[in-house]
Amino acid sequence: MSLDKDKVPQHIAIIMDGNGRWAKQQGEDRIFGHHEGVNSVREIVEAAAEVGVKYLTLYAFSTENWNRPKEEVDALMELLVATISMETPQLNKNGVKLEAIGNLKSLPQGCYDELQQSIEITKNNTRLTLVLALSYSSKWEIIEAVKQLATEVKEGKTAIDAIDENSIAQHLCTKKYPDPELMIRTSGEHRISNFLLWQLAYAEFYFTDTLWPDFRKKEFFDAIKSYQSRERRFGKTSEQIKNEIK
Ligand code: IPE
Ligand code: IPE
Ligand code: MG
């Protein structure tokens, strides 16, 4: 089966997992795996732009990842700064706009500044929006949204009865993006790990045993092909969906 360019998801979200295990398999330490993982990021961003994906959200560092050994956290933050500054010219060349979601203020200052700079430099690009989830967790995001809404209610700016699906979505960090149609997780783990709980309510999930550093263009296109073979029913019956297509 070949990839149908007319049925590519607008928004794909990826849990990039398995760098540590990949490194261990090579007899190297975990950090080596994170470095190799950057090559996959580069290739997947380019492949996404090539097939016309409009939004690509990559889970790069979770709230829970702060609990890893300090050496690993420090190395990941350093890698992040180095990668962002190195890749910005190429992102620009490929028409990629960089954005970020998460508790960005909790990042080390140098990391935060580098990120903001790259966001600024790439802000006018329109081909693909690359969203990095950094110091992100869905429960954190939902708590923030609830606090904002509660404040608006208290200040009389929002009526309780006016709170609906849309107003909640508008208070999440993803308010500018459509919900992902496809969520990919590498490395054989079958869990969501606090990623986009609200936004993935009706996404198609694709799990693969491939470790992130081995997840490249071919594997990415395989995931999109799997998505294209599915029937998305949104609560309706298969017959209803077939009649709608006719
Ligand atoms: C994903 O790979 C990268 C991050 C979470 C930052 P891991 O570091 O989780 O690799 P494994 O799961 O231990 O193999
Ligand atoms: C999820 O991977 C977070 C990222 C990919 C950034 P983890 O490897 O941290 O997830 P768990 O803890 O094994 O579920
Ligand atoms: Mg992991």
- Bound ligands, named by name, code or SMILES: 3-methylbut-3-enyl trihydrogen diphosphate, magnesium ion
Low-confidence stretches: none
Q: What's the pLDDT, averaged over the residues?
A: 97
**Spatial separation of the terminal alpha carbons:** 22 Å
Count of individual helical segments:
8
Radius of gyration, whole Å:
19 Å
Helix content: 40-55%
Count of folded domains: 1
Order of strands side by side in the largest beta sheet? 3-4-2-1-5-6
Largest sheet: 6 strands, parallel
Number of strands: 6
Estimate the global geometry from the Cα principal axes.
globular
The CATH homologous superfamily is termed Decaprenyl diphosphate synthase-like
Order of secondary-structure elements: EHHEHEHEHHEEHH
By CATH, the topology is Undecaprenyl pyrophosphate synthetase
CATH architecture: 3-Layer(aba) Sandwich
Structural class: alpha/beta
For this structure, what is the CATH class? Alpha Beta
Beta content comes to 5-15%
